[in-house]
UniProtKB/TrEMBL annotation:
The lineage of its organism: Eukaryota, Fungi, Dikarya, Basidiomycota, Agaricomycotina. It holds the Pfam family Profilin. The keyword Disulfide bond does not apply. This is Profilin. Keywords: Actin-binding, Cytoplasm, Cytoskeleton.
């Protein structure tokens, strides 16, 4: 099975996660949800990590009037710095506990971190990060999904990857 299949079928395909990536512990992205990619920090800061609708005002000679909203479909970009920070969560859990983790420009507050797993929260959404022998799974879920529904999915995939040497 390809790494992309693990992301598409086992994580996002489970219906519990909205985006996910598998990072190599030695660096690099092995697979990711389309658009949830690594870029340099300057590039990702120029984009907003979400799809949104911007209401605008049209100025006419007589008065301002509402214009049709413009929908912006922007990609979720994980910066190279964020990728390094994710990999460092397990080397320095105290720092992750104190500062949280940023993914695609969004800060997640730490709920729990140990030598294998990191659980973070941002409003009603959250993230599960799990370390295997050679990889790190990063999976974000969104409300109404809750941590007790999402966490076992990512942990089970990590258990499987560990059992086959990854």
């Amino acid at each position: 099975m390809s790494w992309q299949t693990y992301v598409d079928s086992n994580l996002v395909g489970s219906g519990k996660f909205v985006k996910a990536a598998i990072l190599g512990q030695a660096g690099g992205v092995w697979a990711a949800t389309p658009g949830y990619t690594v870029s340099n920090a300057a590039h990702y800061r120029a984009r907003l990590p979400l799809t949104f609708i911007v209401p605008t005002i049209c100025i006419t000679p007589t008065s301002p009037s509402p214009c049709p909203a413009f929908k912006h479909n922007l990609t979720f970009l994980l910066s190279a710095d964020e990728q390094k920070a994710v990999l460092n969560v397990f080397n320095d859990p105290a720092s992750a506990q104190a500062s949280g983790v940023r993914l695609a420009g969004q800060k997640f507050f730490t709920l729990q971190v140990n030598e294998r797993s990191y659980y973070g929260k941002k409003a009603a959404d959250g993230v599960v990060i799990v370390k295997t022998k050679q990889a790190v799974l990063v999976a974000e879920y969104a409300a109404p999904i809750q941590a007790p529904e999402a966490t076992p999915v990512a942990e089970a995939l990590a258990d499987y990857l560990i059992s086959v040497g990854y």
